[in-house]
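Below is a filled-in request sheet from our internal design queue. Each sheet records the structural input a requester submitted and the sequence that came back. We keep these sheets so that new team members can see what a complete request looks like end to end.

REQUESTER: design group, bay 2
PRIORITY: normal
MODE: inverse folding
CHAIN LENGTH: 172
BACKBONE (tokenized):
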């Protein structure tokens, strides 16, 4: 009942980082850094781990009612806490190598830009855009796992109670 894959830890910034951190075949500046879970110094299928549970720790609800003179107000709130969601839409929209159609603005604004083997935008949260992602975008990783917690308003109602004698005079 949990998501299973690699844990991302950022983006390789330069060649010295690629050679000093545990790596994988095809790792380069601008690629995802994956956590070496088993500590063997390289990224292999043995480094996959549990990344989150889609089931909430708890759900909750609140019913609110209030009235003042002839006005009344009702609101029903519902929420979920502690669950994770796997955002598979990112697979299609955040990487060149998966789908040649429409792309997200995140891919254009948050992807690493590599020049002469160095990432020129150190705050990048996505690997460098490429048509061939080595062990990157198609790999199940924590990049896709997001918080699924929410609070939503199911009902919101504002009412007014008219004086029956006024309604009778109007013909209602």
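RETURNED SEQUENCE:
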């Amino acid at each position: 009942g949990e998501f299973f894959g690699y844990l991302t830890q950022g983006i390789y910034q330069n060649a010295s980082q690629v050679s000093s951190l545990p790596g994988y075949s095809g790792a380069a500046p601008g690629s995802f850094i994956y956590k070496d879970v088993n500590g063997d110094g390289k990224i292999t299928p043995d480094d996959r781990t549990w990344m989150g549970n889609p089931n909430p720790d708890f759900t909750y609800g609140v019913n609110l009612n209030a009235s003042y003179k002839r006005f009344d107000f009702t609101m029903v709130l519902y929420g979920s806490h502690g669950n994770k969601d796997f955002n598979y839409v990112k697979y299609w929209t955040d990487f060149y190598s998966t789908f040649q159609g429409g792309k997200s603005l995140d891919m254009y604004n948050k992807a690493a830009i590599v020049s002469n083997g160095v990432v020129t935008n150190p705050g990048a949260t996505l690997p460098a855009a490429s048509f061939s992602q080595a062990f990157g975008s198609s790999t199940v990783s924590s990049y896709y796992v997001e918080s699924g917690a929410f609070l939503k308003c199911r009902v919101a109602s504002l009412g007014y109670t008219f004086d029956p004698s006024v309604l009778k005079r109007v013909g209602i």
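SHEET NOTES:
- Helices lie at 15-20, 89-93, 105-110, 164-170.
- The longest helix spans residues 164-170.
FILED BY: M.R.
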